[in-house]
Amino acid sequence: MKSKKSFFFFGANRAEGSAKMKDILGGKGANLAEMARLGLPVPPGFTIATDVCRTFYANNKKFPLKLQKEFLRYVRKLEDVSGKRFGDPANPLLVSVRSGSKFSMPGMMDTILNLGLNDKTAEYLIKLTNNEPFVYDCYRRLLEMFGDVVLGIDRSEFDTVKREWNVGPEMIGAYQEIIKEKSGQPFPQDPIKQLEMARDAVFKSWNKPSAITYRNEEKIPHTIGTAVNIQMMVFGNLGTDCATGVGFTRNPATGEKVFYGEYLTNAQGEDVVAGIRTPRPIAELSKEMLQAFRQLKTITSRLERHYRDVQDFEFTIEHGKLYMLQTRNGKRTGLAAVRIAVDMVREKLIKPEEAVRRVEPLQLNQLLHPMFDPKERSRFKVIAKGLNASPGAASGKVYFDPDKVVEMTGKGEQTLLVRSETSPDDIHGMYKAQGVLTATGGMTSHAAVVGRQMGKPSIVGCSAIKVDEEQRLFYAGNITIKEGDHISIDGTSGEVFLGNVPTVESEIMQVIKGERKGKDAPLYRDFALLLSWADKIRRLKVRANADIPRDAEYAVKFGAEGIGLCRTEHMFFAEDRLPIMQEMILATTREDRQKALNKLLPLQRSDFKGLFETMKGYPVTIRTLDPPLHEFLPKREELMVDIATLKAERPTQDARLASASRLWRGSPFGAAAERVQRIAEKERLLARVNELHEFNPMMGHRGCRLGITYPEITEMQTRAIFEAATEVARSGKTVLPEIMIPLVGHINEFKNQAIIVHRVADDVAKETGRKIKYTVGTMIEVPRAAVCADEIANEAQFFSFGTNDLTQMTFGFSRDDTGRFIRQYLDDKILPSDPFVTIDTQGVGQLIKITIEKGRKTRPALKVGICGEHGGDPDSVIFCHFSGLDYVSASPFRVAIARLAAAHAALGKT
Amino acid sequence: MKSKKSFFFFGANRAEGSAKMKDILGGKGANLAEMARLGLPVPPGFTIATDVCRTFYANNKKFPLKLQKEFLRYVRKLEDVSGKRFGDPANPLLVSVRSGSKFSMPGMMDTILNLGLNDKTAEYLIKLTNNEPFVYDCYRRLLEMFGDVVLGIDRSEFDTVKREWNVGPEMIGAYQEIIKEKSGQPFPQDPIKQLEMARDAVFKSWNKPSAITYRNEEKIPHTIGTAVNIQMMVFGNLGTDCATGVGFTRNPATGEKVFYGEYLTNAQGEDVVAGIRTPRPIAELSKEMLQAFRQLKTITSRLERHYRDVQDFEFTIEHGKLYMLQTRNGKRTGLAAVRIAVDMVREKLIKPEEAVRRVEPLQLNQLLHPMFDPKERSRFKVIAKGLNASPGAASGKVYFDPDKVVEMTGKGEQTLLVRSETSPDDIHGMYKAQGVLTATGGMTSHAAVVGRQMGKPSIVGCSAIKVDEEQRLFYAGNITIKEGDHISIDGTSGEVFLGNVPTVESEIMQVIKGERKGKDAPLYRDFALLLSWADKIRRLKVRANADIPRDAEYAVKFGAEGIGLCRTEHMFFAEDRLPIMQEMILATTREDRQKALNKLLPLQRSDFKGLFETMKGYPVTIRTLDPPLHEFLPKREELMVDIATLKAERPTQDARLASASRLWRGSPFGAAAERVQRIAEKERLLARVNELHEFNPMMGHRGCRLGITYPEITEMQTRAIFEAATEVARSGKTVLPEIMIPLVGHINEFKNQAIIVHRVADDVAKETGRKIKYTVGTMIEVPRAAVCADEIANEAQFFSFGTNDLTQMTFGFSRDDTGRFIRQYLDDKILPSDPFVTIDTQGVGQLIKITIEKGRKTRPALKVGICGEHGGDPDSVIFCHFSGLDYVSASPFRVAIARLAAAHAALGKT
């Protein structure tokens, strides 16, 4: 039986492989083959299939013996086609050996150039080229790369020699000495031996720790292995009529349709990226080597049309002759991705559907948030790295107290709020700050969720910093940053910079905010056009989570088709309402509580009115009060500390001291009495806070449990909703309120609250003479609701998955506390991804599927949505599509992402 | 079509009903019918079926018109059979009207006696009986009962007249005046009208608030309704040859086979229970009315044999003639239940299977815990009532600090630990205290769980008390109880008494503790015999949760067939280990952590050795470390308060002051420096506590998450287990360790820990040359594990449901925080029972069923058990039986209960 083909030749306008064979040949090998097929000038070579890499590992990291003969046959074929031979005095063959897996892993695996050189062939080449510096330079590079990649010698070992010596035979001798000394074996003079060792080293480089880490980050499977490409060398460093360069067929940062790249004359490939010499813009190549430049433009344009995508290419010019060394689809920023996709549709290169497919949903983020000027950021020092919770760039002076942030922002300062962690008490400061940095918390901690909700750059769980809020400073390693010092945070990368990194503003946000007209904003136009194509493709509806009219307005502009979650409690944290809320909580009788609620009613009503007006005609899902009441009160520890401090001031001693000095001061007894009174007040407050204190507030007295024990709260909220709806309906607008009961686990909880809603709705209808159409549904947040969904669907008219809580309960992970172990879980592959970022389809997802199946068994037309953080996560949106949900609801700033992801799902992306 | 039969006559040795018709006739009516059938002397009467009660409510609380004719026909039939007629001057009929539902609801619904009396019939009766006081007494009672039950007049309205006036015509007049004034209508003179009003009032009394509450407590359905019994009056108050009484065929408190009861001569039924006159022991009746006494003994013995159970009966003797007014199966204490069941088997009245069925598993509790002397407890004042978390009686001096409890117990005091709540830090105090009382927490709060585990009487969630730990006192209403004051708590009822209520010790516990021999303890013998019958019936195995050899020893004596849960962390709270544990936690390097672990290793090893030795041959399931590490450190708030207090002592001012007075004191700078140092120390500790602080520790860094981030802990624990097992195996004993990984949600978590266990087990086997057979399994505690059980069963060799956590996560209920709403949830019937006490079969139970189904699909022989608190709850044990579990594991003190419940399940009880 013939075994599977393991080697694939390319060159001389022919190839055994093609662009479709990336699985087998890797990206580089497949594209080299494709270029050869197209008749482009590609130096000949062959690719060892990825299969061999797997066999190599299965064979205890040894090249399989049975393939050796075939390997040598391909070496001979390369010699034949190139007309050169290894070690041939007349025409010695030199080759490059490069890795190349299916997915690009830039810089991760190893490359060896100039292989085939040895002491003899170097001599021959000097004679042949009459270019001694060139040959020794090539040889030096080979020794360095071979020493590093094959023999595991740290490149710095060569540094002294490289720095102090001239390139020449002595340097080569010294390099060989180093190799012998460090590796215990001399540099192999036999080219075939060199080649075999290099080939095996490339296979081994697949499992270098850095490569493994990279694949973990990029979610590339570890099992696919790398191919090895062995290719005849061509030289950009043979003289001034030689060059080497890289380029893109369009600008990968902006998407502009310009030929883009850089090159160096008389250089080898690695020099362009090494940063020792500054490469020149590719346009200048036309001045130096016009013919080659024209040929390069023609070839790359053809490649772009052939691949119907931007090409990222590498080339070398040897004595004026152009060689193509690589081409691939170019990576690009979100900005460029959108522009290129839309442009290519305009150019009829691709169909709208393909354009939609080309843009990764998360790339849209980059279009929305202010960015650090890419030209400037490298000047600044990175002092710490945390979780990139909410993308975007923010600079400002550091403050540790939300009140201070508000104060200093009022004085015109740009501020950043830095805290160990944030709580709802900090919201006012978060609104005002440019961005938020916390030392603790995960991707769905308070700071992260609110940050994304606000579209505010945020870094959380930055354990590299230690925040001392009392001293008003934080440490990052041995650097101390004090209140008022300037830092910058990149919420996209998670990096914290010392100093003020300049930013550039997002065009699209200017349009959304009404600061600029859409028609004058080309990027916005492209963005809107792309999304309009996505809308035609997707089945899932997309709504937004919005609590205030401004957010609702942004949501509509971003294309939201309704509000999927209005968190009424956020309305109570406002400065003018918190005291009334506290009054309500501190009330000891139902009457007093009702009094406070009566004060809140008109405020809530006007909130809802604003929302209904903004969302004209779209459904608005309003959730009744959800968080535990103690979130509205001062913190327990703070009160305890205050009281202890007041007490420790020892009024009796003070008084004694004062009595001795009564004559020369005001009455000290007044001060003592005042202190006693303050202690009593604080103790009273503490007593109530203690009563409300919970060990695990996330699973405590919250959600519908509040509405059940304090029905008057649900009554007030329902009344506010229906009074507002009636007022807006009177003005002729359609209003579609959907009242949503949170944290329901048992059908009776739902019934209890639904009865109140129906009763109050009827009351308002009677009082106003106008009936509003509405529905009452529930969140599915606790696993019990999932397994009892059939029963709950008897009563609930819609379901909305609160996947934050559902994930918490399903895993038993407190989202605020996972920081302590989630990093290790991800690094050790215990979990494939953070379940608070992307839905855990296996566990949580299974509960979601059970819910939908059971719910629709009872109520076939049951509307089902999701309003957790996952509603704006593309992978999760795709899961929602395939699970049969009706809509996802995301923060306004994620609505576009969700629209695009929903289209991807409809296109079958998984 | 003929409608359903609504009225059932009894009397004159015949009856239309029978004992089997309790659904229709209620308990009282069915037994009256049965007695009539048996030819016993029952005054004639008829029963209105429970069906009519339902119709009554459906008919807007009106008696259905269409039944009125039939009703009157039965009244006439009663007149015919009794030979008396309503209002007949010659022989006026008087009747009683009593409620009677299927389930006994003592004192809950209403009764009216002497109905048929009016101004005229009273006159007739005086003539007929020549007993004016008797007639006016009867009339007075009727007016009072009718006023209360039918017309809703508070009985106290009659108090002044009753106290100050003689029974006679003036009193009757005054009573009638009160009735007219308070109800707005005169007392109806027409007996039929009286009867109709009384009948309807009895139906209405079914839904009195107190009756509803009672049914809620006793889990009696609200829909079954009550029957009404209308029966000819016979009079125990016609003179000294008349009497009335109640009794039991055996002693319902002890089970002793003695004729038991009390009676009053010349009295009506209500007098016996009212406590105005002191009733006399029934034995004395033989001296007063020998013939009636003999007849009563004969009849009740016959009834006991007929019903094959202890009878609780009521009788009246009218002029020497005995009438039976009621019989029913008697309620009894646990003590009596066991003795009676076993005795009746001995007497061949019932089969062992029936005896097993007769004892409610929870009744066994009463046999284990010390009890308040029933004769003494009524002397003491109940000052508060909380949740009856752990049954039994305890008295002692109140202390608020576990250290103080240890100290005072050491001095020979009986102590009670009173806290707002307890934490693992308090364990040493809880061990020493007689009982525990907390103001907060639910039935599975720390205090409750540990209380039951220790078999220590505990009342938790006693919100009626306010604990001020700092002032060392608590308030119960306006009573202040200070440190050292005496109180008593009844963990069975939840009552807190002021003072020292005397207790009696449990015989069975004396045997278990080895203080008494089983063969000399008759109650123990009955108990053991009954359970041996249960063992033959049950399929479920029963294990115990035990952490220390002493508990394991008790468990074996209680019949445990293995340890289902050994919580290794409890071993670390011991006084000699906590400091090492803290050292381990505070370590900043792996090396330092390892050092501390090395110190813990021999201690753990000896713990396990003790367990293995005690459990000779039985399996021992050992769970690796579970709780979050901060449980082992001081509390965060306490540290914060300490630091604030130290700081507020303002060293600078102190120093200034001191410098002015340096001459007459020691150096104050030393004290200041010392304070600064103490602050620094505490701040260092606080920093670590802060690092470990969690918002929701129950869902935080605990369970296998600890073992994953600190693999060296799992290593140490595994090594301790296998070294101990090897040592015990060397002595020739069988050892069956089962290592259990807690809080697994994802298969990879399990794999990670199982690899460590297998590796260390192999290491120890190599070191010792002896292989120990063992298994590695997992707890099923998080919903994710349930839905992914098929995958987890690929690796895990057994499952054990941690239903405490599973309930927490499934509901999203923190067991420590449910106190705030669970009472209302139960009262409002939102939940049928506390899910931390009885498994929520619908939600949590569904996850359990999914787990078993999926787990056994992968591994058909998978062993599945339960080790949550529910393992000792009879309803939950029954659920476990029917769900196909292999075993339940309960606290040692619940093992007997579980054995009995498992037998009940096998007998088909649901």
List keywords for this structure.
elongated; eight-stranded mixed sheet; homodimer; alpha/beta; eight-stranded parallel barrel; 910 residues
Architecture overview:
Two copies of one chain form a homodimer. With 910 residues, chain A is α/β, with parallel strands linked by helices. Helices cover 46% and strands 17% of the residues of chain A. Chain A is built from 37 helices and 32 strands. In chain A, the strands form six sheets. An eight-stranded mixed beta sheet of chain A has the order 13-23-22-15-16-17-18-14. In chain A, strand 25, helix 22 and strand 26 form a beta-alpha-beta unit. In chain A, helix 4 runs antiparallel to helix 5 (132-150), helix 5 (132-150) runs parallel beside helix 7 and helix 21 (522-537) crosses helix 37. The longest helix of chain A is centred in the middle third of the chain and has 25 residues, at 590-614. Residues 660-666 of chain A have low confidence and may be disordered. The interface between A and B is large, with 64 and 64 residues.
Which two chains share the most extensive interface?
Answer: A-B, 64 and 64 residues
Poorly predicted runs of chain A are: 660-666
Mean pLDDT of chain A: 90
Main sheet characteristics of chain A: 8 strands, mixed
Fraction of residues in helix of chain A: 40-55%
